Amino acid sequence: MNALLAYLVEVSICLGISLVIYRALLSGLTFFAWNRSILICLLLLSATIPLLRLQLFGIGSDVSEMTLPVFQVGEQVNPAMGLSLSWTEIILWIYVVGAVLTTARLIFGFMASQKLLGQAKMKRFENFWVAIHPEFVPASFFDYILMPDFDPQDPRQRQILTHESVHVRLKHSWDLLLVNFAKVVFWFNPMIYLFEKSLREVHEFQADQGVTSKVAPKEYATLLLQLITAKRGWQFMNNFNQFQTKKRIQMMGRSASAPFQRLRFLALIPAVGLLLFVFSCEKDDIDPQLQLVDNFTETLNISASNEIFDVVEQQPNPPGGMEGWNQYLSKNLKYPYQARRMGIEGTVIVVFEIHQDGTVRNPEILRGIGGGADEEAIRIVLNSPKWEPGRQRGRAVVTRMRLPIRFKLGDNKSIASDLAEEMTTGVKPQVVVVAYD
Questions:
Q1: Tell me, which fold does domain 308-436 have in CATH?
Q2: pTM value?
Q3: Distance (Å, rounded) from C-alpha 329 to C-alpha 433?
Q4: How far apart are CA 434 and CA 409, in angstroms?
Q5: Mean pLDDT for each 10-residue chunk of the chain (437 residues)?
Q6: Residue spans of alpha helices (H) in 268-342
Q7: How far is CA 169 from CA 143, 145, 196, in A?
Q8: How far apart are CA 158 and CA 150, in angstroms?
């Protein structure tokens, strides 16, 4: 779950950086085919880079901080009495609902388009099929040009048909299909909608360029202004005139970008390299000669000092592995009576050291909740049996560990029962572990 959330955040960052670079350096250029390809590549790279694991010497995650699984102590809540969700679970459910709704909208739009296409009359215009239906607005949809009526002898319709034929010939609907699949996964991210807007914008520039190569730009711009419509098309549709009319007219009047302006595209190389470096690089083996020097230096450091490692190549291991550790905690960890009586819940994080001989020393509370829970966490750690120590370059070293312990109460009836038992017997009841993560 956390891995999914981390991936979504990393993709959002990649999308944001990519879009800023594109809008700042490339969106004003008249290399429309290049811009279209760059936008598609940036979208694919943004979704892929966080999934990659590239090898780069000296950097990465051969070792990682040792944080033990969260351990829960307290009463196990009866599912029939209530459902408790963590904030990550709530976020996940919101994400799933949004993804399902976006998928439903995508499927419904595609089915509606297929239904109308099935009812439309088909005519040929040059090498393209024209689907004619009174509910259509001038648009393109995969291999079809959509028109409310058809008169190829009308000069205005010929401009529209030429415009839409460029969309069909360049297969722009497939770009929009890819973007809509991305919207299913990243529906919550405004960057994906800005990406779609930029891509549609480039599509229109390309189609307008196809028309103005045959018709005077002023005549074509007049047609755009006369046919402005606010009616939205389907997800995969390129409407003839639904947005950005002013910007399209300005782009038609702009001089072609000079060839040397293509050098701007080189700015993407360090940007993509930085994203790969941040999100994808892992440690690889260093050059063998450097490795020998590094091993010798580290051996001296380990021998000469009692350095404490937060991360090591071979992590410490409790007796019996994690199963044995969980059994130890389940048997010995208790919910302090004071914390129960005061209704204190929360997660205590205790940090401790595993020394070369496997003994547990120097426990400290990194985050406490009071009510005796902090002291209980210290007690359970100090009484731990010996561990197998962590190792760095094959040598036993002192390793710092982190253990989260979640204290969670059940229903109020059990607390009232404890108070009644104390008043009757004078004995303060304790509660042992019933669950762990």
A1: TolA/TonB C-terminal domain (3.30.2420)
A2: 0.62
A3: 7
A4: 11
A5: 80 94 94 96 94 60 52 57 65 93 92 90 93 91 93 91 94 94 94 94 94 91 76 64 75 90 93 88 47 46 59 85 88 88 87 91 90 92 91 88 85 50 48 45
A6: 268-279, 288-304, 321-332, 337-341
A7: 8, 11, 20
A8: 10
